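Amino acid chain
________________
===
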Amino acid sequence: MRLNKFLSEKGLCSRREADYWIETGRVAINGRPAELGTPVNEGDEVSVDGRTVGVRQSAHVYIAFNKPVGVTCTTEARVRDNIIDFIGHEQRIFPIGRLDKDSEGLILLTSDGDIVNRLLRQEHEHEKEYVVTVDRPVSESFLAGMSRGVRLAELATTTKPCKAWRIDENSFRIVLTQGLNRQIRRMCEHFGYEVRQLRRERFVNIELGRLQLGYWRNLDADELRQLLA
């Protein structure tokens, strides 16, 4: 990794500013003054003005997190209860997509910024599965309407056809291949239902399983291979 990119990804400065720091002798790698274009290799210690700012890790991390209600999916440190501070990972990580603050369940995070947009591209139609509890009994006509697609006037669009089926009297499962803003809540409101609880349980091949609320785990090699296939 180029040194200016390393400093930028640490959130210290822009790449252009990093180049200026390097040119003016403020940056060192393993205690030696760095030069423009110097690569940062695995295990290298980088310092600015004599203060260590990071050691390049050997590999990216990919984690699954069971997000509680109240945690906001943002990397903005100024936002209270942001997901990055809640997890407190040693590496700089990014959420892949988002879950509403009022929703809970599975969200993936990674230090590999290059794959975030790749996994979120609509044309890939990655499946996301949710369990939803509403304020009154779930009817067959409601499920059929949700499955066909719903016209959301406030977003000037119609949702894509999806799969939806009942779990019990007031709960159902739904599998989406798109991620509009507050999509499930808006779809339910269209039919006069109010969402009481919304939990994501699957993203493509990654399942929430028995991961406890508020905890995270690393993806295993097979999960990651299938996810990125």
Remarks:
- The chain has a mean pLDDT of 91.
- Residues 62-121+206-228 form a domain with the Alpha-Beta Plaits fold (CATH 3.30.70.580).
